[in-house]
Design a protein that fits this description.
The chain has 314 residues and is an alpha/beta fold. Helices cover 49% and strands 8% of the residues. The protein contains 13 helices and five strands. The chain is globular, with a radius of gyration of 22 Å.
């Protein structure tokens, strides 16, 4: 039987990773009170986010790559194993309701498949071949964001290698920059989070830092794509009573109308928040508002400002 694990990850490499090291502040962890443990963990989380902040320029570049990918019709895929994989799944799942994106355009794959989202499938991360097969549908114009706290997870390495072979752009988000890491992806976001309070448990500080990076990448990209007006999520999908109420409040605020007028506009626009806002501010019909938004490529601010663009384009 052929070995399907990554042959380039010998066991002796694990002990050299910062994420596997022992934290000097927690060697007596089992003697601390609950409050002391909690404060120690939260302080480390803060340091993890600071490590992400230090990579702000690189994270911004990643966001721009997402913008370029989606604007040109490509797909964004997150890939990882264990905690990293679940963070990718979470990020992909939150984009459609928050930004109105197509779930087929922003999606996630993880070692062990859907079952692993809810039940740990620890051995699945060692399957280099499954990382390869999980993204065989990617090609030039697509973008893979691989997540691996250790940077040497075989599943993530398999996905990265296959994606690059197929011509897709690749990004690796990691908390332990192993030797030769620069060869793994087109862009590396290396977070110097260091060892965990509970040795090796990268669901802690490394997980928090990774989540902060993903939040920053997708939110910045979606704002640049016109999914926000001012600080309002104008492309949200109002699939619950709470979100429907939020949608009406957004129309009320951005459209500068009363709550009742906002509700009427929202209904007239068939639940399209952007359309309702442009209708309110420009005092035009739903069709005219949609046409103006089309000229503005979905950007509400431009649709409101460039009143003459529609006429000049005809």
């Amino acid at each position: 039987m052929t070995d399907s694990t990554d042959p380039s990850t010998p066991a002796d490499r694990w002990q050299t990773l910062l994420t596997e090291g022992r934290h000097p502040k927690s060697t007596d962890l089992d003697t601390l009170s609950s409050e002391e443990i909690v404060l120690l963990l939260l302080e480390e989380d803060r340091l993890g986010v600071e490590a992400a902040l230090a990579q702000g320029e690189t994270i911004a570049l990643a966001a721009e790559w997402v913008v370029e990918t989606l604007e040109t019709g490509g797909d964004l895929v997150f890939a990882g194993a264990g905690t990293s994989g679940r963070l990718g799944v979470l990020e992909a799942a939150e984009c459609p309701p928050t930004f109105g994106t197509d779930p087929e355009r922003i999606r996630a794959v993880m070692a062990g498949g859907q079952t692993a989202v809810f039940e740990a499938q620890e051995g699945a991360e060692d399957r280099f071949d499954e990382g390869q097969s999980a993204i065989e549908d990617l090609g030039s114009g697509d973008l893979l964001v691989a997540l691996s706290a250790s940077s040497v997870t075989p599943y993530a390495r398999g996905a990265l290698g296959q994606a690059r072979q197929q011509g897709a752009r690749t990004i690796l988000v990691t908390c332990a920059a192993a030797e030769g890491i620069e060869k793994q992806a087109d862009l590396i976001i290396a977070l110097e989070t260091g060892p965990e309070i509970l040795t090796g448990s990268t669901r802690l500080k490394a997980g928090s830092a990774t989540k902060a990076v993903l939040n920053a990448i997708t939110t910045a990209a979606m704002v640049r794509l016109g999914k926000a007006y001012e600080n309002l999520m104008v492309d949200l999908r109002p699939g619950s009573a709470k979100l429907q109420d939020r949608a009406v409040r957004i129309v009320e605020s951005a459209g500068q109308v009363s709550r009742e007028e906002a509700r009427q506009l929202y209904e007239a626009a068939d639940g399209e928040v952007k359309t309702a806002i442009v209708m309110a501010r420009c005092q035009i019909s739903p069709g005219e508002a949609r046409e103006r938004l089309g000229v503005a490529r979905g950007h509400v601010r431009q649709a409101l400002a460039d009143v003459g663009n529609l006429e000049s384009s005809q």
